[in-house]
């Protein structure tokens, strides 16, 4: 089937109050997520978009002494294949699981 590919561009910036180390510069990046291009996938894409707008998609983590943006607690499929072990498909439970989280 065809895939929806979502791109989240997170710019490098300075962390805010409430982040692990306020005022520290952190590194952004481009993050991709994949969904099936069907009704359920499109509905999930809308929910993921709302979560992103609410600031729930990413978190800032310290990695080797450098602050960087990483995925938060909402599971995203970052690959179209490779199965569940590689954050990809096939994974029959993913859409229902992510909708429960959202």
UniProtKB/TrEMBL annotation:
Pathway: Protein modification; protein ubiquitination. It is found in: Cytoplasm. The keyword Metal-binding applies. Keywords: Cytoplasm, Metal-binding, Transferase, Zinc, Zinc-finger. One of its GO terms (molecular function) is zinc ion binding. The keyword Membrane does not apply. Its EC number is 2.3.2.27. InterPro entries: Deltex_C, Deltex_C_sf, Deltex_fam. It catalyses: S-ubiquitinyl-[E2 ubiquitin-conjugating enzyme]-L-cysteine + [acceptor protein]-L-lysine = [E2 ubiquitin-conjugating enzyme]-L-cysteine + N(6)-ubiquitinyl-[acceptor protein]-L-lysine. GO terms for biological process: Notch signaling pathway; protein ubiquitination. Residues 6-98 form the Deltex C-terminal domain. Belongs to the Deltex family. PANTHER family: DELTEX-RELATED. This is E3 ubiquitin-protein ligase. It comes from Eudyptula minor (Little blue penguin).
